[in-house]
Every structure is written in C-alpha cells, then in structure tokens.
Amino acid sequence: MKQAQDASGQSVDAPKETLNPFEIAQMLIYNATRELGLPMAVYEYLKEPERILTVSIPVRLESGEVRSFIGYRAQHSDVIGPCKGGVRFHPDVSLDEVKALSMWMTFKCAVLGLPFGGGKGGVICNPADLTRRDLENLSRGYIRALAGFVGPDRDIPAPDVNTNPQVMGWMMDEYSKMKGYNTPGLITGKPMILGGSAGRGAATGRGAVICIREAARRMGLPLRGATAAIQGFGNVGSHTAMLLDELGVKVVAIVDARGGAYNPNGIHVPEAVEFYTQNGTVTGMSHTETIDTTTLFGLDVDILVPAALENQINMANVDAVKAKIVAEAANGPTTPEAARVLTERGVLQIPDILCNAGGVTVSYFEWVQNIQNYYWPEEEVNQKLEQMMVNAFNAVYKVMDQRHVSMRRAAYMVAIKRLSDAMGARGWI
Ligand code: NAD
Questions:
Q1: How far is the CA of 226 from the centre of ligand 1 (A)?
Q2: Which of the following is catalytic: 47, 99, 108, 120?
Q3: Ligand 1 mean position to 12 CA, how many Å?
C-alpha cells in the first residue's frame, strides 16, 4: 500500500483519519487478502479499477450557454461478471470517489453472490442548478460519451445520489437510439414501463431493513418499540424509514441536506415522506423539533442508519454515538478509525457492502428480467431479495463468529474469497 508522503517526498506517518474513500477501499482489500492468507496477487488484481474513462460532456443549457461537465466511469473488476454500479450527479464527485465506489460494488456483488463485478460513474454537477431539460441533455450526453464502454454484457449503470428512474429512462433511450434497437438491459433502475423491475425503488431500504432485523434477532433486541435515527431521506433513507416503521420501530429523528426533524415519541413516517416530497426537506414538519446531523448521531437510539454520504461518522462525532446497531445504508459512511472505535465499544456495524446491497440485487433481477423479456410480480422480487439478503447476512455473520473479526472484515473476507476463487478458476493466480 502507498505510504503518505510529505511535500519533499519523504514518507510520513499515516494521517490521523483516512477520509479518502479510495485509500479506505484499498486498505480493506489489503487487510482481507492478508487475513485470509490469499496470494498477494489477489490484492494486486483488485487494488485499482481495470478501466477508467473520463469524459467531457458539452451541454447547451436552456439559457443558451454551452457548458462542459466532467464525467467518469470506473470498471473495477469483471472477474465474476460484467461491471455493475450507479451513476452519481453531485458537485463533489471526484475520480477517487468514483474509483472507490466501483471497488465497493465489486465486493457488494461478491458478498451477495451476484454474477457481476463493480462499476461506478459520476458527473460533477449540481442538479439543483439545472432545469429538467438541462438534466435530460446532460444524461443523454453522458451515456453517448460512454456508449462504447458500457452495455448489457459489459457494464450496466444504475441510479445513485441525485439520479433516478427518469435519468435511467433518458440514458436507456439515448443508447437504444444509437444501437438502433431497444436495449433495456443496458441500465437498471428504469421506470417500470421501460422494463424496470417491480420492487426496485424500495430495494436498498428493504435490504437494509432485512439486515437490521437479522442483526436485532441475534442481539435479542425486539424491534417493536426499538428506536431509530436516520441520516438522509432520499431513496434509501425514506424506504428504510417506512419499512422500519412497518416493523414497529419508532423512527425518532431524520435529517436531510437541508435540516431535520425530531420527535422522541416517534415521527409519523408516511407524513414525513409526503412532507419531504413536497418540500425537499423534513424540516418544519408538524409535531417535530428541528435537529442537525451532529445531534442526531448522538441520540440515545437503538439503531442508527446513515443513508446519505461518505465519512459521516468520523473521529469528530463517533464518541457521541450511542446506538447498538449502525446500519450502513449509505456507501462508506464510517471512517475506518471511527469504525474501529465502534467495534471496540461492541456496536454492531452492518457494513455497507452488505447492508445496502438490496439495490444491486434487485438491479440484477431487473437485468435478468430484461434479458428474458419476462417480468416478475413484486411479491416474487421481494421474496427472492429476502432469500439472497438473509443468505448473505448468514454467510458474513458466520465468518464474523468463527474468525472473531468485525462484521465489515467478515464481509470483505467472504467477498474476497469468492473473487479469489474466480481468479483461480480463470487461471489468473
Ligand atoms: P438520494 O439522492 O435519493 O438521497 C440522499 C439523501 O441524503 C437526501 O435526503 C439528501 O437530502 C441527504 N443528504 C445529502 N447530503 C447530506 C448531508 N450532508 N447531511 C444530511 N443529509 C444529507 O440518494 P440515495 O439513492 O438515497 O443514496 C444515499 C446513499 O445510499 C448514498 O451513499 C448511495 O451511494 C447509497 N446507495 C444508494 C443505493 C440506491 O439504490 N439508491 C444503493 C446502494 C447504496
């Protein structure tokens, strides 16, 4: 692994807290490869994405101005199958972030036993500054620029932060026009009418809640009456809240990018969803006090669900965390140092690559349905998701128990073992 260097090129001690998501991902792979006693060739194959594309996307905005946006796509590993992963539209998108997220996708697919590797994309932009037409032109421009790089057997994008089924629909349409025939298998998370899967919208939240349920069962924590706080109320946070609510969990606090809502007696979750849909924030909901992320992380709740962005639980706030379960619905929400503190304190952290894998699992189902041109009812999708999530949870929990490691380490060990088996079967190692 690379050592940190100062300006003169001298090696220096590692910084106090590792915030670069790419370095975090590399560190996790390195540790799991060593702990399993696998050849270091496995780490060499996995430490960098196989391919990265950087594109400039010129868009004529509705204002008449032409602006170029930078977009990325990283394909981390296709040793098990075609690459798979979302596309993020956000001002803070960086190449390192996209690389890290593509690596996480490889491990997520491997933990779940899906026949996919990892990919991820992003465009540096602030969708809030763009009109709907601008967003459509940017989405079409991005997929046009990537057309030779992606495809149903090669790399299959999906939604992520600030992208949604409509964006997927535009991208699928643009790609299909270029090909000259309908290609629903290019992309998942599409609107249902274009070959989207039933159950995809709620899938990531549903997967997270299945993990929380299994974790609580093993800890002897009854979910009815348990309390939860959720950071992020977009696709993942809102569905997680709804499904926890259905299980009788009291969701007492929610924060989003613009504020938050707190009620120690429990927030009315369906009302919060409606309020958020109308106002873009939960701040100002009736029967709630305003709350910020710092206060939310320190609440005395049973379950904490970070469902927003990376590095949210870090050395600055980890000591305040009181939850028994931290369910990482977001990607990389806990820094390694903060994760270590939580592990030492006996907090069960359900790692992102397992906790939020429900989305990619139903994306896999969507791709299978597109290829077969045969669509399953929602109950069937949910039942298959339940089965795959529980199997993955059990596999990870077993390694955690047997090896006395954190659940995160165990998840990486399960994933790397599968990746290493595939490398062996291909004759790479
Ligand atoms: P989204 O854009 O639908 O919602 C993001 C939410 O986070 C919004 O409510 C936003 O207000 C909030 N947020 C943003 N910055 C914040 C901040 N600084 N503090 C508090 N809240 C903030 O995104 P999403 O699809 O729900 O994704 C959330 C996380 O889950 C991301 O890490 C994403 O990579 C991960 N994830 C998403 C999926 C999926 O299927 N959508 C699958 C796996 C993982």
A1: 23
A2: 120
A3: 34
328 and 355 Cβ atoms separated by less than 8 Å: yes
82 and 160, same domain (yes or no) = yes
The 3-class secondary structure across 364-425, one letter per residue, is HHHHHHHHHCCCCCHHHHHHHHHHHHHHHHHHHHHHHHHHCCCHHHHHHHHHHHHHHHHHHH
Closest CA to ligand 1's atom 8? 234
Tell me, yes or no, whether 259 and 318 share the same domain.
yes
- In the predicted structure, residue 271 carries a pLDDT above the cut 60: yes
Considering the domain architecture, whether residues 175 and 302 belong to the same structural domain is answered as no
CA torsion through residues 412, 255, 235, 160, sign: negative
- Cα–ligand 1 centroid distance for 61 (angstroms): 26
Whether residue 414 is contained in a domain is answered as no
Q: Are residues 137 and 267 in the same domain?
A: no
What does the pLDDT look like over 77-116, one tens digit per residue? Answer: 999 999 999 999 999 999 999 999 999 999 999 999 999 9
Residue 291 belongs to some domain of the structure: yes
CATH of the domain at 105: 3.40.50.10860
| 162 and 207 part of one domain | no
Q: Report whether pLDDT(3) > 50.
A: no
pLDDT in tens, 147-163: 999 999 999 999 998 99
| pLDDT band of 16, cuts 50, 70, 90 | low
Instruction: Mark whether 84 is an active-site residue.
Output: no
Shortest-distance Cα residue to atom 35 of ligand 1 = 330
Mean pLDDT of 362-380: 97
Range of the domain at 304: 203-350
Average pLDDT value for residue range 263-270: 98
Return the structure tokens found at 102: 């593509």
The model's confidence at residue 4, banded by pLDDT at 50, 70 and 90, is: very low
Please tell me whether residues 80 and 210 are part of one structural domain.
Answer: no
Q: What CA dihedral angle connects 389, 394, 395 and 400, to 10 degrees? A: 130
Residue of 135, 356, 361, 363 to mutate, ligand 1, most atoms within 8 A of C-beta: 356
